[in-house]
Write a structure and sequence with these properties.
six-stranded antiparallel barrel, 23% helix
């Protein structure tokens, strides 16, 4: 379930994801290679070659940075609590779930991310 595979090193983000309950691996990828802004079903493969299902977000995080956020790739790996910092990982980008939105509160974003994760589970289960 990947239309596109990106690769890069996991760097430290703003650490906000953890506080929101949806930690993400922020992956450094050349901007020219990025797909359009949005949320995608996909996977993250770690250095050991272990591939896990992920909700992949591409974009400038408009909720926090308006129209001026740097575009980035973040992967929330489902049901995973490990540490990926510094690893060179591959990210598979599959089916688009929705576009990036600007939410007016953390709670609204959290509710939406919960739905995104369910949509990604369904996409992953159907291959
Ligand atoms: C599944 C998922 C969906 C997301 N959707 C949006 C969105 O619609 N709008 C937005 O501003 N940020 C969105 N984000 C990005 C979050 O704002 C970001 O992960 C959070 O601020 C943590 O950033 P950090 O890793 O740099 O701390 C999404 C992230 C994930 C994992």
């Amino acid at each position: 379930m990947a239309h596109l595979v990106l690769s890069g090193v996991v760097v430290r983000g703003d650490q906000r994801g953890r506080a929101l309950g949806f930690p993400t691996a922020n992956v450094e990828v050349d901007d020219a290679l990025l797909p359009g802004d949005g949320i995608y079903a996909g996977w993250l493969e770690d250095e050991a070659g272990v591939r896990r299902v992920a909700a992949v977000s591409v974009g400038g995080r408009p909720t926090y940075y308006g129209d001026h956020g740097a575009r980035l790739v973040e992967a929330h790996v489902l049901d995973f609590t490990g540490d990926l910092y510094g690893q060179h990982v591959r990210i598979g980008v599959g089916e688009a779930v929705r576009g990036q939105e600007r939410f007016s509160s953390n709670e609204e974003l959290i509710d939406q991310m919960r739905r995104d994760v369910e949509a990604v589970r369904v996409a992953a289960a159907s291959g």
